[in-house]
Design goal:
Layout: H1 2-9, H2 12-31, H3 35-47, H4 55-62, H5 66-75
Helix pairs in contact: 1-2
Length: 76
Amino acid sequence: MFRRYLQNRLPETSFFHAITYLREEVKAEALVRNLQAFQNFLGVAVDQYSEQINFSAVLRDCQVAFATVREYYSIL
């Protein structure tokens, strides 16, 4: 229904851009269900900015699974 609404109101290029944007936003939103853990991760990621990523330190400091850290970095 929403797709049809957009399709009827946007040029084709804008329509596909809007759908892609919304899809990515929903995916990112789903990955960050635990906002406190993501905020902790951001603090650790900022501390390591411009350095090689030390996944062991991030895992230890954030106390989340490796897959979660990998997903968080993919969001950034």
